[in-house]
Design a protein that fits this description.
Strand order of the largest sheet: 1-2-3-4
Number of helices: 9
Strand content: 5-15%
Largest sheet: 4 strands, parallel
Shape: elongated
Distance between the termini: 15 Å
Radius of gyration: 18 Å
Order of helices and strands: EHEHHHHHEHEHH
Helix content: 40-55%
């Protein structure tokens, strides 16, 4: 299975719970560990509450959506901002779930293929995942961001072919 970003969370659980259905698992830009320190989350929640109060003033309401978008961009939470409001609580619940117990249980070989410039799920997360996944190989590609499989498919395939011995 080749999984990117949010889809990798599903791949992690599948590989941990059903090892007979997975031959190898390739993860790229997957938030398998909590990527954001709690202090940062609390800071931006506090900032959002203050901003909501300030931009509820009649002469500032026309700027509230722009300010909200800016705060989410600063927090690297544009995925959350762009999520349909009715699905935001589901998104929060999925992201909050700690997958470490599943990572430890993965028995199949895992390739962690990350972009060094991934701002959404930093390569430090890949290193944390590599520390707990029993059978893994970590590759961090320079000059590549979060959308590695899509923005640099030739390089992604080069690493993939080498890993799969194709």
């Amino acid at each position: 299975f080749i999984c990117h970003s949010f889809g990798g969370r599903i791949g992690i659980k599948l590989a941990a719970k059903n090892p007979d259905r997975v031959f190898k698992l390739i993860l790229s830009g997957t938030p398998g560990m909590a990527p954001v320190p709690k202090i940062k989350v609390l800071f931006f929640l506090y900032l959002a509450k203050i901003g909501k109060s300030i931009f509820s003033l009649p002469f500032l309401t026309k700027f509230s959506q722009t300010a909200q978008k800016l705060i989410y961009r600063l927090a690297n939470a544009t995925d959350y901002y762009n999520t349909n409001i009715s699905l935001r609580s589901t998104f929060q619940n999925v992201i909050k779930e700690n997958l470490e117990e599943f990572l430890i249980r993965i028995k199949v070989p895992v390739l962690l293929l990350w972009g060094r410039n991934d701002k959404l799920v930093p390569y430090t997360i890949a290193r944390q995942m590599a520390a707990v996944i029993p059978n893994n190989q970590l590759i961090i590609a320079k000059s590549v961001g979060h959308g590695f499989p899509f923005t640099n498919p030739n390089l992604f395939l080069k690493y993939l072919e080498k890993y799969l011995n194709i």
